## 1
Amino acid sequence: MTGPAGRSRPARPGGADRPGAPDGSPGTWRNWAGNVSMRPARVARPASVEELAAEVRGAAADGLRVKTVGTGHSFTSIAATDGLLIRPDLLTGIRRIDRSAMTVTVESGTPLKRLNTALAREGLSLTNMGDIMEQTVAGATSTGTHGTGRDSASIAAQIRGLELVTADGRVMTCSPEGSEEERAVFAAARVGLGALGVVSAITFAVEPLFLLTAREEPMSFDRVTAEFDALHAENEHFEFYWFPHTGNCSTKRNNRSHGPVDPPGRLSGWFEDEFLSNGVFQVANSVGRALPAAVPAIARVSSRALSARTYTDIPYKVFTSPRRVRFVEMEYAVPREAAVAALRELKAMVESSPLRISFPVEVRTAPADDIALSTASGRDSAYIAVHMYRGTPYRGYFTAAERILTAHGGRPHWGKLHTRDAAYLEGVYPRFREFTSLRDRLDPGRLFGNDYLRRVLGA
């Protein structure tokens, strides 16, 4: 997102805190946004799948529940526990690259940014990715992290195999080619919410490194909503950001290119992506938090200051960018055909309310996939994400937005704030019971359970 005088990308999570005691002793852990904290009974940092399985068996014997947490970029308490907290920061690196199958197998604690740069050195890339890369591969896929795409789907949809430790301490490898049980686990565990076991390794499909040309351009809210279907159809990756309190948007279109490589200049790239989108935007949000009445004026200046730019580079340098301004977020996936109506209702709600919103609203898309609890499961989807600067009251805005998005059959992002429960979610996920039945078989004692999972999956 863009800063008040800057570029057209919403501020996304940048560096992560390293909370909790690093020596395995109990301590208080906090997530990146600072809105979730926990104090586990003990902390483990296994360095191999064998050590991980031993930790799971030990916790079960001691009557402790088990959760794994990566860099803490979820805004929900999906990883919270008062039992054993597993930190996977030693489970990192590429295990193997299979160029004949075009897959890469990577340890679950590997940050996406390390995977992206390692693959680029090998002349390879993921097909699609989100706009942040601080998360671990397991944390990102387990919560359904996604970018935007007409034909290419979420990070989890690019998984070709999984290795996970189950509640009985088994190490299970699952894929579409495995046994009946392994196929069932694969169908669900790609977006597993940490409810089916602890993921220890992931095999992704990859492809030869390619180039993307990004075209960023300001556009009016009325135009982008009127042309949304065409913009989606004409571009491989389309997204836009609407600035509340204005009629202005910033759009981004990413499409494959034959080159040549033409990245932003070093100085201009730093000025727009670091100085404006992080530094100036941080100051503007701090001012808006202290003086809410100034927010609409700041938004008008921000949106009018945007300019167009075009650049070409390898995928992770186009899809992702550094985001250091901290916030809380709620995001819902609605049927793609409902996106414009929902967004117009959201705009009308903001305009008729006393709310003061300093963060743009982000809109992305994804094609239907076949993962049981993916937010795009079985339907072409559009994502509408609302944000508030950390420390700013957000409940009124999020509650009003959630009311609009759920009226369109919205599915909440598993790692972002929402108030939905199992009764609601069963109604919007046709394969919900398939997932919970598998959970009953794999973890009948709820070793991997917590309060969040009890709410969203049921007891």
## 2
Amino acid sequence: MFEGQPKGLFALALSNTGERFGYYTMIAVFALFLRANFGLSAGAAGLIYSLFLAFVYLSPIVGGILADKYGYGKMVTLGIVVMLFGYLLLSIPLGGNTFALIFMLAALLLIGVGTGLYKGNVQVMAGNLYDDPKLAGKRDAGFSVFYMAVNIGALFAPTAAVRVKEWAENSLGFSSNDAYHFAFAVACLSMVISIIIYYTFRYTFRHVEGSVQSSAETASHTAELSLKETKSRIFALCFVFAVVIFFWMSYNQNGLTLTYFADEFTQKTSYGLQSMWFDVVNLVMIIFIVYATFSLFQSKTKRARYIASGVIIFAMAVLIYKYTQANQVIDISAPIFQQFGAFFVVALTPVSLAIFGALAKKDKEPSAPRKIAYGMLVASLAYVVMLIASFGLNTPDQQKLAGDDGTFVSANWLIVNYLIITFAELLLSPMGISFVSKVSPPKYKGLMMGGWFVSTALGNILVSVGGFLWGSYPLWFVWMVFIVLCVISALFMFVMMKRLEKVAE
């Protein structure tokens, strides 16, 4: 999995881990903060939430254009600094008045601009590491590793957000609304860590920081592309961008309607084996077991196998001990569910790579466009789970009136939803980024990576649809919207598959 990857990949991935930890710490509680602090309706909070997400993923197209001209490294550094100032502003508790709302919007603007300068350009730099023909075959696996590292940051973010908020309330005596700002302050520290990692290991990727690669090989590839080939590649990329809009619309419900569902329809307590899922230490132990098991079978030396065996025994012992202590009822906070997406990405990435590696040896590995199409179908199954879970439940408006007398379902429904949609994410997101990196005409790499984020932005705008449906409509209808859109998108991909696979050759 890690063997043969360029050192620069790990440096860039770790820097991105720090940045994503800060971002997802904020996102974990943002929708609930909007409703609690400013008294907004579900729809209004959803609109602000989705517009912010849209801006965060729309701005990389501008960042890509600037990086193509002035250099990727310069834009990445500037982006981290701008994000830091944005999170600093968001960390200041000013109450719930109009001035506080305007101040918050200014902070969101800085975070969005900074993300636009940073996010896409880090991924372009990671992709440029594989322009060396010796590394070209490692590109898909490399982006899977990169994506896994990003989700390590996202894994710890919800726990950090919840625990820091609780600490500010219980130990420092702040009100619930003001305590949210302490969760936002965590992101400031993560930005500092991110830039330290970036500059400490900069020597491993300095050669891809520039706006134009200087290698003779890159120049020859640029010359080889005719105008027709360039247009064909851009068309294929734009088609993929259009399709994945609906994946991001569905996937990013994790911070909106799925969080609302966790808050309003899911049981508030857990105990026994189920409660272990809500302790991030247990999730980390499971990750240790997964990676150590792969190391046990893949290691070439006895020493490495002994170490892997020791890690497995240690992690199992921790889990057994934690289970013996899991005899008390624990409270479940709605934002904590967002850790499961990141956990499943990190835990399942080596499984995914092993499966596709085995298929590649048999010359049966699906192409990146085909993986994206499969990902859309799998995403629809995740919402089939929610549809089944919602039969017989009140509408959100009815549930609000019912209060404690409403009907609540097991947390397992949401956990299964996150598991399935993570399979979709692993098929779609890292493969999509790899596809863009591979197919983009060399002189438009920054712009085309920005285009990938534009599709994410448009999907995030449509996230608000879930917020506006959340109220008087039956829950099964809300989930059916996402099922239908994902299935239709997959069908469009299959119709265009031959053309998409041709440009990826």
## 3
Amino acid sequence: MLREPSEVEIDENGRAEISMGILVEAGLTPGTRVLAYSAGDGRVVLRRAEDALAELAETGNLT
């Protein structure tokens, strides 16, 4: 559960910065490879690349 939500703004180059506190709370540290994708319902999903790719190989889908 996200304990301290943070508003993120997308800049004119299409970039968004997520605070390190949120990433660390999610177990993501500097150097961790992540995969970002649209859930198709207005949500953007950010997952460890290793986990997302394993799910994709096993199920053929990303949830």
## 4
Amino acid sequence: MPDRAPYDLLLRNGTVIDGSGAPRIQADVAILGDRIAAVAPTGSIAADRAKDSIDIAGRVVAPGFIDVHTHDDRAVIDGPDMLPKISQGVTTVVVGNCGISLSPLTLKGAPPPPLNLLGDEAAYEFPSFADYRGRLGEVVPGVNVAALIGHSSLRIGTMADVGRKADAGEIDAMRRLLADSLDAGAIGFSTGLYYKPNAAADADEVAALAELLADRGGVYATHMRDEHDKVLDSLEESFSTARRARVPVVISHHKCAGPHNWGRSRETLPVIEEASRHQPVGLDAYPYTAGSTVLDPDHVTGDIRIMVAWSKARPEMAGRDLAEIAAEWGCTEKEAAVRLHPAGAIYFQMDEADVRRILSFPLTMIGSDGLPHDSHPHPRLWGTFPRVLGHYSRDLGLFPLETAVHKMTGLSAMRFNLADRGLVREGHAADLVVFDPNHIADAATFEAPKTPSRGLDFVLVNGRMSWRAGETEVDRAGRLLAQTA
């Protein structure tokens, strides 16, 4: 007699937004093991055909969100439940962005900024990506992990002086480390040309490394050299480098930073669109007018609000504005930044109209760029994806919900070559999120940044019921998503 319950779980009566950008449909979704076994018209699969069934009438079932821009390299090890991400529907994080990766690197001494965003010297304990991959397998994080290898990390691991261009021997050493990492499952390479450990590298050095991705299906992601006055020059450098290396490029957290550059997305987006006609191009963005990174006195200009996210020297100052601290200390903001160093900060440097324009751009994916180790983090760490779905899609009508989901699922999986992720399709991995489209919303604020979002019911990772609304424990089922050329 045939098994009456061939499925493990049936999600009944839901609205499926499948991640492709296609219109929503009413359908039931059946899961077997770690795969989506069926997507069928509502009512066509009897409830007793599954060992468990959940009526999700009035709810949306969508692919688990893919956070394409994170600095979760260490967080997936030290805080493997990954509550800030899974509680907002994220089932996969791309780590190693902005030229900063936890491997392959060990250190003797404090990590130079911005590598200190991932932790202290002890955090850098993985001389090879294979070592990092092994640790992930041991801890089993709550979300899947796809990893980029950072250029700054390669430079610090092979160069005595990162303040200059690498010589031929150093480039060869970096190439070997990068090749080994890619062969062990890393999905690509990232640069942080804005930052001091990476700034001396020219396009020749970057291309010599990025070209290793071409035959491996890898992606090149870049925090460009300049997102301020020379943003157009930096875009051209990024596109040119990727063409030379024959690889896809992703422009990280695209923005037009600084008040005198506000409105320039009207210039940058047509340039990106034109480039995309001739080469594979993507970009990501977060839905806020503030960014966050290390507090660098050289970048304290006095023309924008800056909030302290953490400070080793004065930890009690986290969450306070730099201008307020400077006034209290009777010094300039730049002098206050020096006294707080090493530290991190939130920079209110973008214009809302630019943010909306960039989010609406068809090639834009969603990435949080959250910093999980900050004592007072930017609210994007906890709120990015519900903010796009609730505030920008539903409340402002910036784009349909189908488009919003596509920007955080199907488009992301395609751009980062994550096979069988990002779509609600038979045979695809059962990474799924169920949410209330009428009430999903971010709750994290700059004053209370660790507040969980609202309107999410539950999240499945690789077929496992990993998280439910209101819970603080996660049934972890994440895995490394290795590159498949």
